[in-house]
Amino acid sequence: MAVVDGQIDPTVLLRQNGLAVTAQRLAVLRAIAVQPHSTADDIDKIVRADLGAISRQAVYDALGALTEKGLLRRIQPAGSSARYEDRVDDNHHHLVCRDCNRMVDVDCAVGYTPCLTAADDAGYDIDEAEVVFWGRCSECVVLRPQENREGRDRSV
After folding, report:
1. How many domains are there within the chain?
2. Residues 39, 33 contacting (CB under 8 angstroms)
3. Domain range enclosing 142
4. Which range among 18-22, 42-46, 53-57, 117-121 shows the weakest confidence by mean pLDDT?
């Protein structure tokens, strides 16, 4: 199996998952590897800069196929456009800045975590919990420090 920089070669990855290797799919995988948590519009811009002429629909189709096969994860925090990432091999969470919408990965909570255990599983075999932490990134805290201490709505 071909491995590049510790990662499986995208061409091999596509073939292993029964997908045709296309320039669009490879460009989408490259775009998300460089800029994880991007929206479809952001990915479209990156892919167009990479490939030149490509339809928006081709990018959306590639995102759909890659997500369906589990090569990408689609994330949609409340009030935000869907975003995509290629970190799909674990159950991790996200932190989103309320001001600039920057999103970063947060490893799964460890230790006593009652919010990750359903009070009543209703007969479900639960295999994943999605948690989104909201706050302000360090850059936005520096720009608007007073708002971080005063008068914020903390509704849950």
Report:
1. 2
2. no
3. 90-148
4. 117-121
